[in-house]
Amino acid sequence: MNQHFGWHWVLVEFGEMVDEPGAVSSTSIDLLTEELGLRHIPRDVPRHESTEWPDRVRTAAAAGQPALLARLDHPSPAIRRIVAFVLSYVDDPVLPPALRDHLEREPDAATRIASLVALAQFEEEREFLRTLVAGDGPPVERFGAAYALLMRPADLSFVAEDPAAGEGLGDEVVEALTLVVHEEVEPRLEELPWMEPDWDSTVSALSGRLRSFPHAWARWLARMTRMLATGDCPAEWSTIICGEAAMLARHHPAQAAPLGPLVRELLAHPASAVRRGALRDIGTWLGEPGDPLLAAHLDRVARSLDDSETAALAVDVLVRQGDGRCVPPLRLRLADPAPLTHEEQEMLSAAAPFAGSLLPDALSRLAVPAPVNDTWTLLGAIQRWPGVAGARPELLRSREEMERRMDEWPAPVNDTWTLLGAIQRWPGVAGARPELLRSREEMERRMDEWPAPLVLKLLTSILDRPDRPDGPAGPAGPAGPAGNA
């Protein structure tokens, strides 16, 4: 057997401390391992040293290419998909002809995509993939070939330093990668570990891969932004696409420059989801102080104040740009008794230059009895405002109130996250349904506190898992926000 398994690239692509990309991938790799007559034994190592997912893939790969290739004809599409995925990390000269032969009869689109990625490891197959990209085949085939050219050879960095990286990925490849929006393509991608929804969204995973190739990344983002404008791209992808454009601008401003006008145009889009996505990172594209166009761009942002769907984001932009039009909506928010979110705390903290106008409203809010956590959030926001230290009577009254209510302080959400990560695979934990359900209800009430969304997801995962009171304890779960988020 003349094969090499790229364990390191599984680790690079999925990161450390990942037990699985998602439930589907986890089930599939276990089914394959069992089908091959193998058994994966988790390493008994500290959480921060865990390489569980790469190890599970390596266990399956250890069966060797004859056994794996034979399973490409398995009746279960789930088995065929995970086999093709494993083979995409196996460098063996016998693979190309076998994969080409199998592609001619493989009906499952997700398996075909993973098989194309496996083919792309071999330089002599890349021309075949380019032919598929340029051909008139179905969208899933053209996208799959382009995705394969992007994925292999494996070369992953957070954002490549060379702005010209990816120039070799021609416009036909970049254009084919925009087919991720196609109704025949995205659902198939979600069936593969690289883009399983439990792990990542399709558009986020694809853009994350393109970061290694800024030249191609910029061209793809420009196309996707135009597709947002025309309605040819899901509106809910706006936040990711505009956020990725801002990231490109931070690392390679020259490459990203053409994206600025495209993102600014989205502020007038009829879909509120698109406008919100554009507003989140619009500060990247407003210009520097003294730029003659800055005032006009801020006027466009200020028009979003009249829209309930975008007002909060517009206020945040105006605060950070030092624009006084943020003051009236901030005063209204301080008068609203609804609990402040973490994002609002950061925004109010940044509003320190306007403390002269806002401090009376903040102190009035502080004087009204409120949940302990809200008082904590407000004090955290205004603690460095000019003049706040002079408001001693109000602060002393608030301190006395807190001293009377010390027993109301809830456990920090991060403590719950850490504890659940530690015990999630203990024998019998899934059977503790009353306690888990109470904890889930608490997290649902505190979704604005990070990492409550992750805690909620983890609790749901534990509750949905069959209880095995006598089963062996598996590897530790996520120990904090760097887990399988």
What's a quick, concise take on this entry?
This protein is mainly α and 485 residues long. It has 4 domains: 1-205, no CATH class; 213-321; 341-408, no CATH class; 413-464, no CATH class. The chain contains 27 helices and 2 strands.
Structure description:
This protein is mainly α and about 475 residues long. It has four domains: about 200 residues, no CATH class; about 110 residues; about 70 residues, no CATH class; about 50 residues, no CATH class. Helix content is about 55%, strand content about 0%. It is built from 27 helices and two strands. Strands 1-2 form a two-stranded antiparallel ribbon. α2 packs parallel to α3, α6 runs antiparallel to α7 and α8 runs antiparallel to α9. The longest helix is centred in the middle third of the chain and has 17 residues. The two termini are about 35 Å apart. The C terminus is likely disordered.
SSE diagram, text form:
Layout: E1 4-5, H1 7-14, H2 23-35, H3 52-61, H4 65-70, H5 77-87, E2 90-91, H6 95-103, H7 109-119, H8 126-134, H9 139-151, H10 171-177, H11 186-189, H12 202-210, H13 214-230, H14 238-251, H15 253-256, H16 259-265, H17 272-280, H18 294-303, H19 311-320, H20 327-335, H21 342-350, H22 355-366, H23 372-382, H24 392-404, H25 413-423, H26 433-445, H27 452-464
Antiparallel strand pairs: 1-2
Helix pairs in contact: 1-3, 2-3, 2-5, 5-7, 6-7, 7-9, 8-9, 9-10, 10-13, 13-14, 13-16, 14-17, 18-19, 20-22, 21-23, 22-23, 25-27, 26-27
